[in-house]
Amino acid sequence: HILARLMNAHPEFRMAMKDGELVIWDSVHPCYTVFHEQTETFSSLWSEYHDDFRQFLHIYSQDVACYGENLAYFPKGFIENMFFVSANPWVSFTSFDLNVANMDNFFAPVFTMGKYYTQGDKVLMPLAIQVH
Description:
By secondary structure, the protein is of the alpha/beta class. 17% of the residues lie in helices and 33% in strands. The protein has a single domain (2-130), classed as Chloramphenicol acetyltransferase-like domain (Chloramphenicol Acetyltransferase, 2-Layer Sandwich).
């Protein structure tokens, strides 16, 4: 929710190319990965952003309950106004780079979280942010 609120607070993060024109979406929605243990594959699922955390959590929970076991790559369908969040909970990193091939004018930010760890009395989690 924090990432989605940040994304929606700044028009620079809501920019995209549509039909050859630069647009600024009214809102953008997080698209996140869902891991399927039985097939060791991922799906991409998005949830509608809502400013109210409780409402957003409810929407997210419903989406995961409804589509979480669906093995399609985009089980809920694809929308244009989204940004990407993924987690690699088994890897802790100091840097992470994602190369998106054959996607001209790709402006959507990508957030990647890694394995959390303790450092002294703090719990830390790496977060890579890729913006274009």
